[in-house]
Structure formats: structure tokens, C-alpha cells
Amino acid sequence: MKRTLARPARPQGPRPEGGSGRAFLLALLMHALLFALLFYGMRWQSSSPAGSEAELWTPPELAQPTPTPTPPAPPAPPAVAAPTPPAEDADIALQQKKRKLAEAAAEKARLLEAQREQARQEALKQKQLAEEKAAADAARKKAADDAAKQKLADQKKADAAKHEQEAQARKAQQVQDEKLAAQKKAEADKAAKAKAAQEAADRKAADQARQQRLAALRGAAGGAEGANGNGLGSSQGGSGAGAGGTASPGYIDRVRRRVKPNITYTDAITSNPTAIIEVRLAPDGSVMSQHLVQSSGISGWDQAVQTAVKLSDPLPRDTDGKAPPVIQLRFRPKD
């Protein structure tokens, strides 16, 4: 059996470039492989299958004469090999293969470049994220430092304000204390003046009462006041007088020497004024009363002398064993 192979239609494409020796050899090899494939394929299809025998039995009434066997068919002629396609088709196929390879290489290069671009974008993104994180960390650190500095400044400001407030409070307290001290001093001076005035009034009343008693005693005695009714005495640094009795010479000096060590006065005085104190005594020398007859003009010195008289109680007795009822003592700061 003869089989006719249809020649495939020639593909339309660009004209091949001028072949080279290598391309020609490759095309020749491809055609040889194609020819071998076609040859063995046609031979396999044209071979007849091997025959098989079978024995058939029929009943006698249906038996017929045995037919003459048909001779086997002659073998089919060998298939005619298809003509080898020209070299131009091989070049076209080669060019198509090259184009496909080039396209595959280009696609691979494109994919590789896309992967590289993606990796570069990812690295850029990671770098940007790292920079943003570093900037955020730096901002947080700067904010924390600024907050700490502001807190320290506020603390220093608060401490300064507190110290200033305490200083003002101390100053106000000092002013208040000074005012209070001045007020107390004024009150003390006022009280001292009132006391001095009261003592002066008391002494004046006592003197008047004493004079009245003396006048009554003199009137009862029927005599006048004698020359020795008043005694005058003087000594270094002062003088004294006794009333209602005669003081022996030197008695006033003895009393002054007893009182003077008890005078305490430390203020500086440029002048040397005299303070005269009249003292009423009991016979045993006890001080019954005293009053300032003549002020020195310095209240501190006058008060110091009166205090010394109180501290010296009782005063010494006279030579007759009794103290005069009334004596006057004179004291000056520089004596």
C-alpha cells in the first residue's frame, strides 16, 4: 500500500540570514533524525499481522463442501520516504528556536531584574523604617531630656521662691519682734514712770505723814526743834543728812560704802550728775522705805542706786547701836 505524505505549509516569517557551517550541520542532523523517524514509523505501520488457525464442526445435514483457502495478500511495498525539506526551513526553525531562547533569556533576565528591584525596594524600605525609628527614638530621648531639664529648672525656681519666701517671713518676723520689743520697752518705760510717779506720791504722802507726826510730837513735848534736830554730814564723794535723830560723824560714809558695791550700771556717762536718796530706817537698820529726793537726770542711774539700797538692806547701825530714822545718801557715777 502506497502512502502519500502531505508537505507541511511553509511558515511565513522573516527571511533567514545567511547560513553558516555550524547552522548547516545542525540542520542536516535534524533532517537525518526526522528521516529515520519517518522510515521506522512507516515500516511498523505496513507490517501484516501473523495468521491464526481454528477448527469448526458442523452437523452432517448442514455439512457443505470445504471452501478453497484464499492465498495470502502480497506484502505492501515499502513506504517512500518523504523528501528532505530544504535548508531554508531548517534555518527558519533554528531562528525560531533562537528567538524563543532569546525570549526565555530576556524573560529570565526581566524576572531577575524584577527580583533585584524588589530586593532593592525592600532594602530601601527597611532603611527608611530604621531611619524613622532612629528619628523617633532621638525625638523621644530629646523630649525626655527636655522634660528633665524643665523639671530641674522648675525645682530650682520653686526652691528659690521658697527661700525667698522664707527670707521674707524671717524679715517680717524680725520686724514684728522689733516692734514687739519696742512696744514692750515702751510699756516697761511707761510702767517704770508710773511706778516712779506712784513711789514719789507714796514718799510724798509718807513725808507729809512723818512731818505731821513730828509736829505732833514736838507740840506734845512743848519744845521747838533744836539745833541738833538736823544732822549734816559730808564725806568724800557725797553727803548725807539725818532727821529725827543725830547720826555720828562718818556714819553716812559707812552706809555709802555698804551700798556702793551693789550698784550695777554699765552705760557710759560723760557728766557726773548726783542722785539723792532719802531712806527711812528702823532702829535695827532695816530699810522701811526710800524715795528719790533729787534725780540725776539719768533714769538708769537713779534706778540702779535705788536697787542697790534694797540689796544692802539692812544698813549698818550707828555707834549707839541704833540706826537713825531718816538719812539722805548722795551718789555720783564717777565717785
UniProtKB/TrEMBL annotation:
InterPro entries: Tol-Pal_TolA
Ranges of biased composition (kind: Pro residues): 66-86
Pfam families (alphabetical): TonB_2
Keyword Transmembrane helix (UniProt): yes
Transmembrane segments: 21-42
Ranges of compositional bias, category Gly residues: 220-247
Alphabetized SUPFAM superfamilies for the sequence: TolA/TonB C-terminal domain
The keyword Secreted is assigned to this record: no
Ranges of Low complexity composition bias in the record: 208-219
Sequence ranges of Basic and acidic residues compositional bias: 101-169, 176-192
GO cellular component term, pick one: membrane
GO biological process: bacteriocin transport
Region (Disordered): 49-253
Example of a GO MF term: toxin transmembrane transporter activity
Keywords: Membrane, Transmembrane, Transmembrane helix
Protein name per its UniProtKB record: Protein TolA
Protein species of origin: Pandoraea terrae
Lineage start: Bacteria, Pseudomonadati, Pseudomonadota, Betaproteobacteria, Burkholderiales
